[in-house]
Write a structure and sequence with these properties.
With 127 residues, this protein is an alpha+beta fold. It is 28% helix and 25% strand.
Length: 127
Amino acid sequence: MADAATLTDPVAPDALDAEDAKIVTLARSARARTGAAHGAAVRDSDGRTYAACTVALPSLSLTALQAAVAAAVAAGAPGLEAAAVVGVEGLEGGFDDPGLAAVADVSAGASVLVAGPDAAAVHRVAS
């Protein structure tokens, strides 16, 4: 994972502001509802949220973060404020997901939160 994004020290979900805690909860719910490997959610610059999960079809593969960004863009989101991904194992080496590039394509300054399967600790992708 040489290109993995560096993560900040973890914090408890209740230490997040309410809007960031909401997208972590939405990401966790998307994962639980579908049984997918990962769940993700994004908040656009108008405050709307979009949730998605990993897509693994024979003809289409998207990470949860890519799917959430695609949903926001398809809905006409003017930009992104924040994103969250839940279900990521092995965060000691950072976070490597092509969805990070998709978030940056829409809004370079958007904050990205990452949590393990239980979402007990949340990391922020360091800028």
